[in-house]
Amino acid sequence: MSAVEKRSVTIRGHRTSYSLEKPFYDDLVAIAAARGLTLAALVAEVDATRPRDTNLSSALRLHVLDWAKRGTAS
């Protein structure tokens, strides 16, 4: 099992952090690249669309899972 790593990002002018295992982080980087986005832009997009009762780390994992299930980068 991959260790959880905490990362920081600036979203809409404020710093926040999320914690992900390396495989999830690697897939986020791949999704961002496939969509021509920076990682920060992808994280901001997921943050803007997540339910407010879902934390950012969980929303990012669910985004990667959804991407993997569909087999497309979106």
Strand and helix layout:
Elements: E1 4-11, E2 14-21, H1 22-35, H2 39-49, H3 56-70
Antiparallel strand pairs: 1-2
Helix pairs in contact: 1-2, 1-3
Describe this structure in words.
By secondary structure, the chain is an alpha+beta fold. Helices cover 54% and strands 22% of the residues. It has one domain: Ribbon-helix-helix fold, CATH 1.10.3990. It has helices at 22-35, 39-49, 56-70; strands spanning 4-11, 14-21. A two-stranded antiparallel ribbon has the order 1-2. Strand 1 and strand 2 (14-21) form a beta hairpin. Helix 1 crosses helix 2 and helix 1 packs across helix 3 (56-70). The model has no long low-confidence stretch (mean pLDDT 92).
What is the number of helical segments per DSSP (H or I, 4+ residues)? 3
Strand elements, count? 2
- The CATH topology is given as Ribbon-helix-helix fold
Can you identify the CATH class? Mainly Alpha
Distance between the termini: 26 Å
* Number of structural domains: 1
> Averaged pLDDT, please?
92
The largest beta-sheet arranges its strands as 1-2
Compact description:
With about 70 residues, this protein is an alpha+beta fold. Helices cover about 55% and strands about 20% of the residues. It has a single domain (about 5-70), classed as protein bp1543 (Ribbon-helix-helix fold).
